[in-house]
Amino acid sequence: MKIEDVVCTFCGCLCDDLVVEVENNRVCSVENGCTLANEKFMRDHRLKNPIRRDGNGWKAVSYDEAIRETAEILLDADRPLLYGWSGTHGEAQSVGVHLAELIGGVIDNTSTVCHGPSIMAIQEVGHPGCTLGQVKNRADVIVYWGANPIDAHPRHMSRYTTYADGFFIENAFRDRKVIVADVRQTESSAIADEFLKIDRGGDYAALSALRAIVRGKGDLIPSRVAGVTREQLFRVAEICMKAKFGAIFFGLGLTMSPGKYKNIRNAIELTQELNRHTKFTISPMRGHWNVYGSNEVFTWITGYPYAIDFARGIAFYNPGETTSVDILMRGECDACLVVASDPGAHFPRACAEHLARIPTVQIDPHVNATTHLATLQIPVAVTGIDAEGTAYRMDGVPIRARKLFTGSYPNDQEILEKIFARVKEAKRS
Amino acid sequence: MTDLLVKNAYVIDPLSGIRGEIMDIAIRDGKIVEDTGSGAPVIDAGGCLTFPGGIDSHSHVCGTKVNFGRYMSPEDMRAGRTARKGVMRVTSGYSVPTTFGNSYRYSTMGYTTVLEGAMAPLEARHTHEEFTATPHQDMLANTLFDGNWAIMEAVRDKDVKRAAAIVAWTLDAVKGFAIKLTNPGGTEAWGWGKDVHSVRDEVPYFGVTPAEIIETMIRANELLNLPHSVHIHCNNLGVPGNYQTTLDTIDLAPDLNRNRQSLYLTHVQFHSYGGSTWRDISSKSEDIARAVNSRPQVAIDMGQIMFGRTTTMTADGPMEWKLYMLHHNKWSNHDVELETGSGIIPVYYGRKSLVNCVMWAIGLELALLINDPWQCMLATDNPNGAPFVKYPEIIALLMSSRYRDIERSAIDPRTEHYVPLFAIDRELDWYDIAVMTRAAQAKALGIERIGKGHLAEGAEADIAIYPLKPDELDPAADYQQVMAGFAKTRYTIKRGRVVARNGEVVVEGANSTIWSRADVPPEYDLNRDAEFVKKFEQYYTVRMRNYPVQDIYLPRGYFISTEASL
Question: N- or C-end of chain A: fewer Cβ atoms within 10 A?
Answer without folding.
Answer: C
